[in-house]
Design brief:
By secondary structure, the chain is of the alpha/beta class. It contains 10 helices and 6 strands. The longest helix has 15 residues. It starts with 7 loop residues before the first helix and ends with a helix.
């Protein structure tokens, strides 16, 4: 697990601004979705192109939150980062400029549907009623990425719990947009994973400052149980 959390100076600022770090004092499980972002073999398997080693350590907590929310009538959604032909065509700036040629080829191969890297990590507990959604951008809500927003609105979801990898990329992008689309967002400190403690802590601090209620697994489980 990551060893660093919200920066002390940010925590102090939040206490002055709103009286504490927490934003919401309750959630309604039946209107809540656990959004599990990109916990796929391409990010999880040792030696894979986008491996995030800490991501393997968060899976038990991810499963705990999913189990609790399912039992309380909530929704669990697994996002799959995808580099199919549509993603490559419509997001050419990323694919043409942010990789070396060798790494681009490896990345596309890993995250092409049907290839092993695209599959969900086998230690995730995925239930029959859970939803799996293809995602073609970092953030799930940006146009061209996925149909997640429509699916959530159809279910009456107004609250999201964010888990997954990478903390400062896909988790961050999804959480920021969700809050600005008027979802209540919980960003979980010990179910998100980055390559370094510093990157993780920086994102937790930014999320807590303006975008999300930043909590650990045990805290959000308490809210689910109380709800």
């Amino acid at each position: 697990m990551h060893q660093l959390g919200i920066l002390d100076e940010v925590r102090e600022r939040l206490i002055l601004r709103r009286g504490g770090v927490a934003v919401f004092d309750r959630l309604s499980p039946r209107r809540t979705a656990h959004i599990v972002i990109d916990l796929q073999n391409g990010f999880m398997v040792p030696g894979q192109v986008a491996e995030v080693p800490v991501a393997r350590a968060i899976v038990s907590n991810v499963n705990r939150i999913s189990a609790a929310l399912r039992a309380a009538g909530g929704l669990v959604v697994f996002m799959q980062h995808t580099a199919d032909a549509e993603a490559i065509r419509t997001w050419s700036v990323y694919f043409e400029h942010f990789f070396t040629p060798e790494r681009r080829a490896r990345f596309i191969e890993a995250f092409t549907p049907g290839n092993p890297g695209h599959a969900l990590w086998p230690e995730l507990n995925v239930a029959e009623q859970d939803v799996v959604v293809i995602k073609r951008r970092f953030g799930a809500f940006v146009p061209g990425s996925s149909d997640l927003h429509a699916r959530l609105q159809a279910r009456g979801v107004d609250t999201l719990i964010i888990s997954g990898t990478v903390t400062q990329v896909c988790c961050d992008s999804t959480a920021r947009d969700a809050m600005m689309m008027n979802y209540k967002v919980f960003f979980i400190t010990d179910t998100c994973a980055a390559l370094t403690d510093a990157e993780h802590a920086g994102t937790l601090s930014a999320m807590a400052h303006t975008f999300c209620d930043v909590r650990d697994t045990q805290s959000v489980l308490g809210l689910i149980a109380a709800g």
